[in-house]
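Before a computer can learn anything about folding, someone has to put a protein's shape into writing. The three-dimensional part falls to structure tokens, numbers that each stand for a local backbone shape. The protein below has been through that process, and both of its lines are reproduced in full.
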Amino acid sequence: MAQDEVVARYSRLARAALDGQDVADCSADEFEQGGFGAAGYDDTGALPGAAVRASLGCGNPVAVAELRAGETVLDLGSGGGIDVLLSARRVGPSGTVFGLDASPDMLALARRNAEQAKANNVEFLHGTIERVPLPDRQVDVVISNCVINLSDDKAAVLAEAFRVLRPGGRFGVSDVVVDGDPDPERRRAAEQRIGCVAGALPVAAYRDLLAAAGFAGVRITLTADHGDGVHSAIVQAVKPAPD
């Protein structure tokens, strides 16, 4: 799916959330099974309702990012801001969390949610995950929640994540991947059903792209099984520190 179509799609969902509607980016059956949206979190009670309603991810990257006080975090495709706000709690007032999104409507929603949450250590940026508007070596941790699979240029996304990380920095995302070599038509149907618009990488290809970008310590852990070889997964890696 082209980038302008992705932006238009998520802009519509953002406007619905702003209007107080519950939104979902997958089939109702998948959503009800608890693999998507706010069902992946257990600590949303103090968050603005619109942030929770607009949670469209496939996991909880904050839970595996091992965030520490004072760190700087970048959320690729931050949407309504739920992962930004949860990260802001963990890094505390001495830390900073950047949320990056290509949809102006999502950014408007996220900024309103941050204001309501009184999160003073967050900043939302307009831009694409293939060209991050931050300097080199700016962040300690890169997170993302079911967004990298939407990109038509995943190699560029991972290269940008590597660029903005400081040496020793961590990459920890939730994403959708393909295990094995399922029938192409059934795979596309499964991907559409779970809202990842036919963009999931095979596990081996994801590993190869991370290595090509320079990452080490790659771990890909399959989580929810969506059928037809399509899975949610936790993807973790590290930017090596100089010897």
Notes: The beta strands are 72-76, 96-101, 122-126, 139-145, 165-178, 201-202, 216-225, 230-238. DSSP finds nine helices and eight strands in the chain. The CA atoms of residues 95 and 182 lie 43 Å apart.
